[in-house]
Amino acid sequence: VQLQASGGGLVQAGGSLRLSCAASGRTFSRNVMGWFRQAPGKEREFVAGISWNGLTTNYPDSVKGRFTISRDNAKNTVYLQMNSLKPEDTAVYYCAATTKIYSLTSLPGLYDQWGQGTQVTVSS
After folding, report:
1. pLDDT in tens, 4-18
2. Closest CA to 69 of 100, 91, 95
3. Phi-psi region of 89 (alpha: psi -120 to 50; beta: other; left: phi over 0)
4. Residues 122, 8: Cα–Cα separation, whole Å
5. β-bridge mates for residue 57, sequence order
6. Residue 25: its pLDDT value, please?
7. Listed residue (35, 2, 24, 32) closest to 118, CA to CA
């Protein structure tokens, strides 16, 4: 089972990036998926979550209105559209899946499948 995140890079403040997370080895079409980020010296932070059918999402206030999570279960892929990026969004971004629960959660400890991370750097 593997989650492969991609799409990170260097962007100027106010710009946009779209991250992708492709799953292989099994399907996650019935699982809650999430995105997290971790900046140097900081704890891993929840960024977005999406229900198995894509109908429900949740975000922390720090990204609400700027980030959008979506999924394409036919492609076994989850996306994170990031707009109006700020320097404080700089971090390694990870996608994750949970096989433990079926409701949205922001707790990293409840996610048991993790991708390798993709670096997002926002310059001022």
Report:
1. 999 999 999 999 999
2. 95
3. alpha
4. 10
5. 50
6. 85
7. 35
